[in-house]
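Hypothesis: this fold can be encoded by more than one sequence.
Test: take the structure tokens below, design a sequence, compare later.
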């Protein structure tokens, strides 16, 4: 018996399995319950990117905030090396 015949026999056995009444509805209901129960992410990254990309002042504010954070990091590093 070659592998193709084994596979065909397995497929025929699987086709003969009977499912109960309403099996499809039960499975689909469980899938819908799972989808509804899933938690939504705390941060909507796609919405944030759309918000930033559509507003020039938001882009400028993000760049300024990054500059301030970078300056504070450099200032802290200098402070640690000079005064510690």
């Amino acid at each position: 018996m070659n592998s193709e015949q084994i596979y065909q026999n397995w497929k025929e056995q699987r086709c003969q399995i009977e499912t109960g009444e309403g099996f499809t509805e039960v499975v689909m209901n469980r899938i819908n319950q799972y989808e509804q129960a899933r938690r939504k992410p705390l941060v909507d990254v796609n919405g944030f990117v759309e918000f930033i990309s559509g507003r020039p002042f938001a882009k400028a504010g993000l760049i300024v905030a990054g500059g301030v954070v970078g300056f504070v990091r450099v200032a802290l590093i200098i402070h640690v090396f000079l005064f510690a």
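Residues 56-83 form the longest helix (28 residues). The helical segments are 3-15, 23-37, 45-53, 56-83.
Hypothesis status: open.
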